[in-house]
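User: Predict the complex with beta-D-glucopyranose.
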Amino acid sequence: MNDVPQSPVELSTVPLAEKVRLLTGASTFTLHGHDGLGLRPMAFSDGPTGVRGLQFSGGPEVTLLPNATVLASSWDEDAAEEVGRILAEEALAQGVHVVLGPTINLHRSPLGGRLFEAYSEDPLLSGRLAAAYVRGMQAAGVGACLKHLVANESETQRNTVSSVVDEATLREIYLLPFEIAVADADPWSVMSAYNRVNGIPATEQHHVQVEVLRDDWGWTGLVMSDWFATTSAAPAANGGLDLVMPGPDGPWGDALVRAVESGEVAESTVDEHVRRLLLLADRVGARGAPREAPADLPTPDSTVRREQMTRLAAAGLTVLTNRGGVLPLRSTDAVALVGRHAVETICMGGGSSKVNPPHQVSIVEGLRTRLASGPAVVDGVAVRRRPTMARQDVLCAPGGSDASVVWELLDADGEVLETRRTEEAETVVGWDDDLPRPCVGIRVRAEVLLDGGVEVGGLGVGDWTLRLAGEERSYAARVDGDGFGEEMLKLPGETFRVDLRGEGPHHLEGTVRLLDADDQGAMAGVARLQIAATTAVRPTEDVLEEARRAARACEVAVVVVGLTEEQETEAVDKSTLALPGDQDDLVRAVAAVAPRTVVVVNAATPVLMPWLDEVDAVLWAGLPGQEGGHAVAAALLGEVEPAGRLVTTFPRADGGSVAWSVTPVDGELTYDEGPWIGYRGHWAGRAPKPLFWAGHGLGYGAWEYADAEVTIDGTGPGALDVAVTLRNLGERESREVVQLYWDPAADDQPVRLVGWTAATVDSGAERRVRVCADARMMRRWDTAAGRWEQMPLDGTVLLARGLGDVRARLDLG
Ligand code: BGC
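Assistant: Here is the predicted structure with beta-D-glucopyranose placed in the model:
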């Protein structure tokens, strides 16, 4: 193993059991301290789009950033660095030492449910953005954590699946973002994934965690497991895993002590793990002088944060089509705004990256503050199949206050153990709780602030009885999945329809019995519970008719469509890229009668657009964070340029990507497409022409590329760069992202992004820019020799705005 920088502390005086105890968490998100080692307990928090705190749910109010694909779509390392800085500030304010991000798994198949958390399909773009994020965060003394190492691109059977990947593909594609971030920014920690890699659990991957990460890359940071991923003591401890998360229980403890005593694990190996932990502690200020949070940090709803969140989101919004320059809109336009996502804009994905933000601005709110009159709003067709947690403004706790729901935790005699009033309609029981006796049931109360037709219910494993306005329902909510994740992330439950009449509020009450050890299928006494309540969706035909009426009466219709946390979430993959429900019909109904139609896509990842030729413009909005509605409205009106470029290729139809299935066969998911994922495979003709290429995005500019010139200086690293003159032929200042691809002559080597540069140019002006090729993209992995080989600089370089719009081709001979 690579040498770990020596901590000045003499570990031989610390008993083995004490050292081992340090190597498993103390709770879900905290570690043990050790007085003798001067070690204070460290705190970790998810995650990539906000620092949600030390609880699984119900954490403090924090800033919700735009999701990773929106951030990446600006192709802007400065923005990624700013994101790292902002997250570090949010972490310091909460005493958090390590933020569990960035996620740099790649967009292999567009069906991956968790792609919204990861930057892109391209290893260079992902690696460089990750490095910038890590720099921004660690400069403030907060540790970053690259995750999830490695080949963790989908969620189906995520706790057990073996990703089967050949070594060259692993090095050239899936390890590469990690390699780049390690080399360029030296992250202080890395998270080992749930899956197996070529049959060996990621947490026991000596090859990846020791031979690659430490020996080849010379990295000195700490490897922690994904939550509950570790299943062994000696193989994981010998395989390069330093820290088991979460705690306090886990597979190490006494088992690891015994493994050392029996000689299966050398005590020096345990010492190395502890030294890495101490090094992390030194770096994040958990030893020596503690790191102080600056006194004047902006609060999540401060003007500073609102400006940052609006700007960061708007920069990643991406204009996919814009016929006749329908965008930007004028503030005097009469706008019909249609769609459930306009009213309930989805600002974040589901799972462990979820945070509790101060607000989530809808597109209705964003446009209302900007349009001279209107917009005329039409709520849309149903977008979910399953019930979802009530938004904060539709429930309040009896007696008023900011809380949504009151939960009384009961013991076996029905005595109240604890009363909770939660801001969100959610609580987690039996997890990091400090209760005097076990909780077996819960009494729940809330006031429903809606009227008319309402769907209400309760979600989360348990036996529910709920009453509202004289209606009562009882049901058993269960999961049939396995392993952590299912009962915490895919909440089962039911809703029922109630017609609420007259002045509210309307009193909702009920009980939940938690499962005990005799029940099958979930952890005894542990549950994540939510109350669902939403206005019942009207029949599709009624919605379409109302939408048509509004569309006929307006100058421009904006239809907002998208996915929800049912598709874009941890623990679940998609089965189709089609928009859920009857949203395609809604777009078509509006487009058939509106003078002009703009579609806004509120989804982080590719969707199908069978109506594309029937509408005038499409703006991709991702999951734009807490100020989402403001960012989208500002972009639609041209207050800011939506200058994003896609970070993943949108196929034309289901099955239209080289890598498609995410369903393991006999426990294995074979990455047999090798390096040909995303645009690489489409370019080589291994998949049909896509709907939109990664790199595509029109902004509000119009560009001419002239006098492209390639310079090759020697043959070594950094040898190739390209200069080009950009002319902004548009009517406004615009930001162009000049992308440099290389298509090597060798047939077995795919085209690849090797560099990019961005320039903001005034209308009518021109600018000469240079794009340097990153030498790491010009190597191939020689599996037989076990090393990188520099490739000959042959083939073609391409300057492109995504490979569907190549502006210059230069032969390298
Ligand atoms: C996720 C990780 C996350 C961890 C802690 C896991 O389910 O895969 O990304 O950091 O939970 O919440």
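The longest helix spans residues 77-94.
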